[in-house]
Structure formats: structure tokens, C-alpha cells
Task: structure prediction
Amino acid sequence: MTDETTPLTSAVAGGSGYVALPPYQGPEHVFPGGVSPRSRRSRMKQFQCCIGITFIVIVLVALGLALVFDDSLSKGDGSPSFFLVINDTDLALDPMTPIPDEPAAEWALQEAAVNHQEGARSVGVGIKALGDREILEEGLQPNEVNTPAFRHYRSLSTNPEARKLARRGYVENQATMDIARRFNYTKEPGRSNIGWGPQIVLPDPTVLRLDCDFNARYRRSTGVCNSKEHPRTFGASMVPYRRMVAPDYSDGIAAPRTSHEGRLPTARLVSLKIHRSSYETDSNFTVMLAVFGQFMDHDITATSLTTSEEGESINCCVAATREQHPECFPVEILPDDPYYKRYNVTCMNFVRSAPAPMGRFGPRMQLNQATAFIDASVVYGNLEQRQNQLRSFINGTLRMFLTDDGRELLPISANPADGCNRVQMTRLGKYCFESGDDRANENLLLTSMHLLWARHHNNLARSLHEVNPHWDDERIYQESRKIVGAQMAHITYNEFLPVLLGRNLTRAKGLLPSSHNLEEPDTYNPQVDPSIANCFAAAAFRFAHTLLPGLFNVSRDNSTPEAMELHKMLFNPFSLWNEHGIDHALNTAANTPVMRVDRFFSLEVTQKLFEGNPDDPVPLCGLDLVSLNIQRGRDHGIPAYPVFRRHCRLPPVDTWEQMAQAVDNSTLASIKQIYESPQDVDVYTGAVSEPPLEGAIFGPLLSCMVSDQFLRLKLGDSHWYERKMGPQRFTKGQLAEIYKSSLAAIICRNSDNITRVRERVMERQRVDDNRYVDCQNLPGFNLDLKAWSESQQPPELHRTSISREDKAVRVMPKESKKEINSSLHGGSIVNV
Result:
């Protein structure tokens, strides 16, 4: 049976997969001729010798080619076998082409039967359901401030625009469920959904039309107008996540995934039995890997959470006598739970992700509030209003808080109900912070990364002002923002991805920067959708939670051991107010080894999440992040582990015998203990349980899902920093400076007083590699901005029209709404 370790030299492509090479038998017969027996025997020997030599040459050439091919694609060299052709298909995957998404299901009902009247009736049912929900919310009490449930809610903050969209999405879902009931729709066995049906046009007082300038030098804050063919959707903020594979809802529409053959184990039971604690570190890498990964993840994903109409949190663990919110999906805690039974806890609060409006009858989708592009929106915000709040409007700089000793900190948040500020700290004049992303205060190290990049923007802005003193505030701001986004993307693809995927696979997928080959063709492919995959946001990219250690090395000089527990760093950024606070935090991340990527998690993650500090008026009982991850995947209708293995062209795991080839025996035994079928195994559990590929930190399925998403982010971005064409491009001189960027240099340039770092701060020092160097000796420590001087560049490279986004939006005439909606979605229209 073919598996990840099958060598390419043992098989040859056939019509359906790979077949073994038959042994060469030689010619079956020789045609007679008019020659003597001796001559015939001589010629026979010559012929056989010739055939033999030819065969040997063919074998040697084939072996050589196989070894060359195997060097870049075999598992043993760090690249996964999902490039192989398996699963009865002869269509090989081009490693530099994204995997095609699974086609959306067709509408399961007769479209002719769902006429205007029937559709309008179901939409009316949906509107009534929303009204009933809002009445219920008026009588509900939100979670108390500073409780673990409230802090979890704050870590998944939903902005007002997303709340409005979620209300429309809720109406659409309720309408779809109503029309399915009335037309007797039942889900077929296995993974299926109702598909996409007629369009729904809900009342909307402002229908806006985009007025895109595709020659604009700078990105729009919301990510729109990046794609000419899909300007409103491809990679933009406030759009649904993309589906790599079709969703698997228990009712085919919106209900969370359940078992196909029995009953799914509770998420908490999966966490206890499979993802128990472990303390095995990965000495090759540092916590800086996880910190930068979370920071970059927040740049491209921000799942909208269901809230009340006014944006308040929802308490799903209410008394049995009270009515539960319809969007509740709490994690069940069993009576014999070894941790929670001590606190008499039987329910872990969990609210479903907000439904995204699609404008059509169909299955539930979830909303991404962030732009998909690596554009540093985590620093600036992905709405123009947010960006304006963070700007000083003075020489392109960001608004900062200046301490008495002259240090720049992020703008302060004085909101006592933000889940972070504490009375004890505000009395001391220490507050939490504001940034481009509401999750900035989630943990101390993440806040430090926000501060680092905000300072970096201001340093760039000041230097650009010196180089081009005639530039106005807007030009300096936009150019600095463009450089920051490019440097962030370069670090992601040059330092971060090679650690995750291994350098060989990163190269094979075309994900390494082109700094060594400046003549490579233009990167942009307008057919590629860069939008974030639902499974990436809800499962695959949550792998980093396995990296988090329970204890962090907070020793200031490494001479005396000093450690801090992870849960005490959550919503606790106050040490940044101290002198060298950011230096201390960054050194902590650079000096603490991460855990291995496997199925084991620290107790700090599985018991003490958002527990708070002893001086907080909250119960000393935290949340379980693993349970929340698994529950989120089921909430989103993310299909099971075997589905994604097939989609990635990996050997199947449809039976326990097949799964034994993908995970170790101990893991398989734990999985079989609680799951009734391989078809039930959550993809999060299966993916983190796979042993890592050589040279990578995780296994083949995560390698497939992660590399495919980052390939899309590169190919589908018309503003990608390495583009060779278009007004968005950098000049060769500017790009040469961008290529010098490193996270180490960013830290050196923008910390308080860090003077020595490892060149690759996400990796630890080895015997003769990655040693400490003086900051001054880092190539990118001082970015040479002369390449941005207009006096040294052709004038046409600096011509740009900078228009504010509110001037580029026009109100669509009422008479054209129906026509354009119809052309966008097709099919019949249900207009209410």
C-alpha cells in the first residue's frame, strides 16, 4: 500500500495511480533469416547484448531521474508525498499551483418550486426569528467582566460592521432552514449539504458601488479593489471564509457537525484522552516562532463571533430554568472530569461564530473580519475609520503614548470593561493598549510585537520625511505602510515558512522569496483566490497552540533561573510600562524553547486559559483551548480528518488499518478509544497527531493545508511586494533593501536597548550556527531609504494619486440594484 514513505523509484505512473515495474523478459522470439546457424547465434548474442546494454542504460537514467526528483519531493528530504498521484487519479498536482477547491454543491430543491412567493415567505420567517432572538437578548445577562468566558469573548472581538452583517446572515440561515423544512429536504447519508439556491435580497438602505483604481500605488484598507475580476470579494475584509472542501453540517445547512455512525465524543473528552499534557520541548526553535506566527495570523484572520445586538457577550452556561441563546454551543463537561469536577463545573461557555451573509439560500458560512493579504493591517486596522483613529496626521506617523522617560508606547485604552484593564494597575497609571487589532492585549508577548511594529512604522516615516521633505503626511504614511507590509511578508516567507514546512518544500512550492533570482516572472495570477480557507482559520493554523510551553524563561541575564506561567501573561501587558519592558518581553520569547508540534498540550493551555491572577475576583478555573478549537471546527462544519487527507492527495485514512500508516501506535490507540469511526475524527486532532516531515515541524496534512494557503496569498495578491509589473511594484533598489529585512533587525531597530541578537530569532543557537551578533552588523539594521528618494528615481515612478476611500465609494442608483445583484449571483431573486 502506498503511503508517505513510498519511494518514487519503486513505482511508475499508470492509468490509475502507481504500478510496479515488471521484470524485463527479453524478446519472446526471433524472426528466421537466411543466415547460417553460427552467424545467427552470433547475431543473436549481439542483439541480446545490445538489448541488455540498452536496458541497463534505461534503468540507470530512470534511477538518476528518480533520485533527482526524489531529492525535492520525497518525504525523507523534507517535502511531503502529497505531490504524488494517488487515490485513483492520473492528474498530478503542480507544486506551484494551488489545489483546486472542492466544487460547491448544487441546490438540492427544485428551483422552479422556490418561487418569489415561497422565498419571500421563508425570508419573513428568518426576519421573525431574528426579532425573537433580539427580544430574548434583552433579558439575558452577559458574562461578568474579567471572567475567563468574558476574556475569551474579548479575544474574539467582533466589530460593529461585522455585527450588522451577521444579522443578515442569521436571517438567511433561518430562511434556508424554513424552506428546507417546507420542501421536505433531508440530508443524504455522509457528507452533503443543501447547496446554493436562489438569491435573497434583504432590505438595505445603502447599496454601495466600488469605484476602483487598479493603477493605485497603495492598498485599500479593506483589501477591496485588489482583484480586477473579483474586487469586492477576493481577499477583502468582511467576506466569508473560502471553503477548501464543502461543509459537513449535521442537517446539511447549519447545525454543527455530528457523527455519521454514532455519537461524537465531547470536545473536552478528546482533549483529555488524546491531547493530554506533555513537557517535551523542541530545542531547535524559540517561542518567538509562536509569537510572530500569532501576530501574522491576526493579520489575515479574525473570525466574527456572535454577540448580542449591542455587541455584548453571551452567557451559554445558564441555569436549566432559563432559556438558552439559539447561537449557544457550549462544551459539555462530564461529571468525572479530573479538573473541572473540583469546581463543580459542568459547562464551558462557547458561542457560535457569526453567520456570514451570502445573498442566497444555502449552508452556513463564517465571516472573516480581516483582509486575507499580508498587508500589516494588524498594525493599522482594516477599516479606514480604525486607521484614522491610530494616525497622528503629522508627517505620516502613528499616534503613540510618550512616557516620562521618552519611550514610545502604544496608545492607551482607558476602557475599564475591555477585559484587560485592572483597577489595581490604573491606580498606578498603567493601562492596556490600542492597536490595529482588538486582540493586541491578549498576551504580553503579542502586545510587544504590536509595539515593535508600530515603532518601526514611525521610524520609517521619520526617515522618509528626511529623504523627501516635500512629501505630505498622506504620502509618507502610505509609503511607510507599504514598506512595513512588504517587510512583514518577506519575514513570513523567508524565516517563518521555512521553519514550518522545511526549506525543501518551501522551495518546491515556490514560497521562498525571489531575492536570488530577480529575473523570475511576475507573481500575480488573477485567477487565484487568496481568501482564507475556513479550515485554515478554524483548524490548521491553530497548530501553534501545541508550541506553547507552560513556563517562560523571564530571567533578565540568564544567570539565575526565573520563570513565569503562561496564564499569568494573558491580558497582562503592564510590564511594558517599565523601563526596558519591551526588551525583557522580546528576550523572553527569544530565550524560551517551544514545545514540539504533536498531540500533547501544556496544562496551561488545557486548564488555565484566561484564568486570571489570584487578585482578580474570578474563580480559579480557566478554559481549555483545545476543547474550544475542536468545538470551533464542529461549529464551522469542518469535515473530518479523512476528507482533508483525500483532498490533499494523501494516502487515505478511511479505516483504522489505513490510519495506522499515518499516526503512531500510541496515538491510534488513544483515537480508537473514544472515536467510533475514522470518519468521525476531527481534523484538528488528526492533523496535529501526524509525525513531522523531515526538516519541517509538522506532518503532511498540515504541510498541505498551510502551504496551499500561503501559495494563494502570494499568487493572488496584485500588491505583492515582489511583483515585476504594475504601479504597485517596488524598484529594484527598493526591493534589494526589502530583501535585507529580518525579524532580528526589526527587533534591534525598534527595541529600547537590545544590542545583540541571534540572526534568526525564531531558531535557537546550534553548535556552529545562528550565533549572537551585534545589531549593527545585521544587514537590515539600517534600511537605506535613499532608494525612495525622488531625486534619485525617474519621476514617473513617483506619480501617484492618493485618494481617500470615502471619496471612492458611490451610492448605487436604486433602479440598478436588482440588475447588478442578479448579475453577481445568478438565478432567481427573492426580493423582500
